[in-house]
Structures are given as C-alpha cells and as structure tokens.
C-alpha cells in the first residue's frame, strides 16, 4: 500500500525526493538494496544537502557490498550533517535575544536614580 503511494508520487514527478526516499526505504526493508540505490542516487542528486538521503544512500551502498563507495558517501553525509549543525548554531546565536543590563536602560524622565 505505501509502496503504491510512493510509486504514484514518483510517476507524477520523478524528481520528487520524498517519493524517491519512500520507495528506497521500503525496498531496503525488503532487502532490495541494489534496487533502492537507483532511487537514493536520484534523491542525493536532486537535493545535495539532504543529510538523510546521503545516510540512507551510504547504508544501501554498504548493503550492496560497495564498501568503498559507502565510506565516501558516509564521509559526505557527515560533512553535510556537520555543516547543517554549524548553520543551526549560528542561527541560534544570531536570533538569541540578549537582555539588556538594567544599568544600561535609561531611567524614565522625572524619576530618581
């Protein structure tokens, strides 16, 4: 049932990463790593910064006994994941609200310090 859903999505738009990932996940669950590689390869080409796609691709390569390629893909996955973590941390720092020190806030007019 789920496979049919993802296959329909893929038929409607072969560049849909969600469909590619869904089909590949189900194929991997069925032990069909070689077939899953087609869809995962397409997914990583469509979305080069999709860390999950790279992780699944590396695991499928390993399951297909393509160990050297799996190691390279795992390194790329880690690079993407680490870069995304750095970006999230920078965004957190940029968006962090700094509370002004009470001594830096001017007193209202007419009030005594």
* CATH architectural type: Alpha Horseshoe
The CATH class assignment is Mainly Alpha
Derived from helix and strand composition plus strand pairing, the structural class reads mainly alpha
CATH topology name, in short, is Serine Threonine Protein Phosphatase 5, Tetratricopeptide repeat
How would you sum up this structure, described in words?
With 113 residues, the protein is mainly α. It is built from 5 helices and no strands. The chain has a single domain, classed as Tetratricopeptide repeat domain (Serine Threonine Protein Phosphatase 5, Tetratricopeptide repeat). Helices cover 71% and strands 0% of the residues. The model has no long low-confidence stretch (mean pLDDT 90). The chain is elongated and about 75 Å long.
Keywords, please?
elongated; 113 residues; 5 helices; mainly alpha; 0% strand; Serine Threonine Protein Phosphatase 5, Tetratricopeptide repeat
Short description:
By secondary structure, the protein is mainly alpha-helical.
Provide the fold topology.
Elements: H1 2-12, H2 17-29, H3 33-46, H4 51-63, H5 67-95
Helix pairs in contact: 1-2, 2-3, 3-4, 4-5
